[in-house]
Amino acid sequence: MGEVVQFVPRAEREASANLAEFIRLAREDLTAFASGGAWDSDKWQHNETVVVFATKTAPFDSYSFKPMAEPFKQFAKAYIRYRYSHRPVKSLAMMLQALRCLEAGLLTACGRADVVLLTGAVMDICATKCRELYSSEDVHHKTGLQMQAIFDFLREKHLVPSLPTWRSPFKKPVILTEDLGEVGRAHREAKLPSNEVMLAVADVFAQANDSESRFYSSIFILLMTAPGRVSEVLKLPVDCIQWENDERGQPQMYLRWHAAKGKGAAKKWVVPAMHEVVQEAVRRLVEIGGPAREAARSAFDCLEQLSRGAETTNLLEEFGGLYWPFLNEKKTLKTWDALCLHRENEFSRERAIRPGSWRVPHATEVNRRLGSGVSSSLFDRMGLRNADGTRIKLTTHQLRHWLSTMAERAGMDDYTLAQWAGRARVADNRHYDHRTPEERLEAIRELLPIQPAPLLERVKHRQPVTYQELGVDRLGTAKATLYGMCVHDYAMAPCQKQRECMTCKEHVCVKGDHVTLDRIRLLEAQTEVLLQQAQKAHEDGDFGADRWVDNHKWKLAHVRAMRMALEHPALPEGEVLRIPDGHDPSPVRRALMDLGVVVELPSTEAPSPRLISLALS
After folding, report:
1. Contact 484, 516 (CB under 8 A)
2. Engineered SS bond to 170: which of 91, 144, 277, 368, CB 3.0-4.6 Å?
3. DSSP string, 35-100
4. With contact defined as beta carbons under 8 Å apart, do 584 and 478 qualify?
5. Closest by alpha carbon to 242, among 251, 233, 250?
């Protein structure tokens, strides 16, 4: 494509002058799509990349179209050539769609297609035209991002005066494979063929009785071997089957594969159950394509020797392709080494096979045999139908979706699946995962431990513990304290004990937690010191000291009793312990007891913790 030239606008020039200079630079200094005087043509091509400067304001197809209006077309050509020169890509479809929306918006708002007329309001109208011209939310999102990039380019390069910042209004659509509603369910059903339909694909291969059904059903089998794209299968080499010993020394089959979309060369491992059928499929393709491979090699040899002259030249012009003698852009596969080669009219019932020809089928031809078109499919010819009697309709990409989903159901990890499917990003797996929400939930449950960790272990690690496990018939989880667990219901009232946990009947301790036991021992020693100080103050006649003596005795009795219970060898680890209700009566219960009224405590169905006995003397 030659040297890449950067366009640098001049601030002192007007926007119209910058725009004119940008178009001149792209037309005269850049060389992308330059072969054959491409600038004056409305259809450009470089290798497999095709650009058609057709307006969306009139119907168009591959054979006829109306060009974009001037002067917008000049900017569109300059923008495409400039962008492609700096970042060559195979498809410029989304960029062209964005340019067509701009042209339609300018014609609607201004009556003239000229980018210098763009304003904030006109940009919004361009977005409205995008909604009108295209129906897919995904196309809206991707086209909107391209429109945003064009507007940013115009503003940053000072090609349009005072152009405001604009953000695409089209949000990224929801990934329907993860949608839990009716729309998601319908999407999964449309993308994922049933197992019965997939068995029909196998039946087509088994019942194939002519060259057409044997050829295309073999391609189906290769698509069912590993989750691949049909373009990848159509460019497999003849010697695609390879073997390699595993860690146990057993030979395992893989296919030499070249994944599209940047993943590159890879090994597609074949499960042992598919070894024989894959070998048979490859054998059929090698046999059927033999004459075509011989023709391609012969044409190359003859051209090298200049022995057949014009006849060979004409064949090469028709069948050689863009990368002759190679079949692909990377030049890794020579045409006569391609597995899926066949002669012109090889499967036609009306035309004779053309000797000396060779070709690789298009993806649409493979899809047509699967029933994606209106013409008769291999299923139709063999009388294979859905259970309800309707026609079987599949696409090659549905086979990829089905195999990916089967791998998910079988528990294949995401990284291995992405490698097997030839995906550059692990995150792309989710677009091919059509398991139901119930299946995904079950898979998640299988990852979780069947039984929760023992109570003592969760207490030690401050993990959630339910009220029921601690003897309280209430929903929710208990709160961890320095000495155990608190089962007080804070939704009903705040803490009534001012964090005096060890004398509270709503506090429990669990035997075996040595950290909390050490804290209880320290608290016992501290409380004993405080009691001695209070007793000395009482002996010295300090006013109110007797109240502190009683308080510390009460607390020390609870702390010591709990410590002795936690150290008792007869109690098993994990035992839940608390003080009796009678040793921590509520204010209402105390008042009733002072009046001589006996209050019976309500029974509970929850398992009761073991009560410790206190020596209060």
Report:
1. yes
2. 144
3. TTSGGGSSEEEETTEEEE-B-TTS---SS--PBPPTTHHHHHHHHHHHHHHHS--S--HHHHHHHH
4. no
5. 251
> According to the 3-state scheme, what is the secondary structure of 247-285?
CCCCEEEEEEEEECCCCEEEEEECCHHHHHHHHHHHHHH
Q: At what angle do helices 545-567 and 514-539 cross, to 10 degrees?
A: 150
Are 511 and 460 spatial neighbours (Cβ–Cβ below 8 Å)? no
CA 162 to chain CA centroid, Å, is 40
Span 154-167, pLDDT tens digits: 999 999 988 999 99
* Number of alpha carbons in the 13 Å side-chain half-sphere of residue 576: 22
Beta carbons within 10 angstroms of residue 289's beta carbon: 23
Nearest CA among 383, 379, 382, 340 for reference residue 362: 340
Strand-strand pairing, 485-486 and 479-480? antiparallel
Q: What is the DSSP letter of 557?
A: H
Asked if 614 contacts 579 with a C-beta cutoff of 8 angstroms, the reply is yes
Which pairing describes strands 251-259 and 241-245: parallel, antiparallel, or unpaired? Answer: antiparallel
pTM: 0.58
Q: Which residues pair with 256 in a beta bridge?
A: 267
Q: Please name the helix (run of DSSP H) or strand (run of DSSP E) that holds residue 205, with its range, or none.
A: helix 195-207
Cα angle at 268 between 267 and 272, to 5 degrees?
125
The residues, ordered by sequence, that sit 6+ positions from 239 with a Cβ below 8 Å of its Cβ are 256, 337
| 204 token code pair | 């087509």
Pairing of strands 264-269, 251-259: antiparallel
Give the strand pairing for 241-245 and 49-52: unpaired
Contact residues for 179 (Cβ-Cβ < 8 A; gap 6+):
185, 187
Question: Which is nearest to 75 in space by CA: 143, 172, 7, 140?
Answer: 7
Distance separating the N- and C-terminal Cα atoms of the chain = 100
Distances from the Cα of 564 to the Cα of 116, 182, 528, 540, angstroms:
89, 62, 15, 32
- Does pLDDT of 586 surpass 70? no
Distance CA 250, CA 122 (A): 67
Q: Which residue has the higher pLDDT, 590 or 303?
A: 303
């296919």: which residue's tokens?
255
Rounded CA separation 76/74 (Å) = 5
- Dihedral Cα 508, 514, 516, 522, nearest 10 deg: 130
Contact call for residues 414 and 429 (beta carbons, < 8 A): yes
User: Is 577 in contact with 612 (CB distance < 8 Å)?
Assistant: yes
Can you name the residues that pair with 266 across neighbouring β-strands?
A: 257
Q: What is the pLDDT of residues 544-561, one digit of tens each?
A: 999 999 889 988 988 998
Return the H-helix or E-strand segment holding 220.
Answer: helix 211-225
Question: What would you report as the CA-atom Rg of the chain, rounded to the nearest whole angstrom?
Answer: 39
The pLDDT confidence band at residue 63, using thresholds 50, 70 and 90, is confident
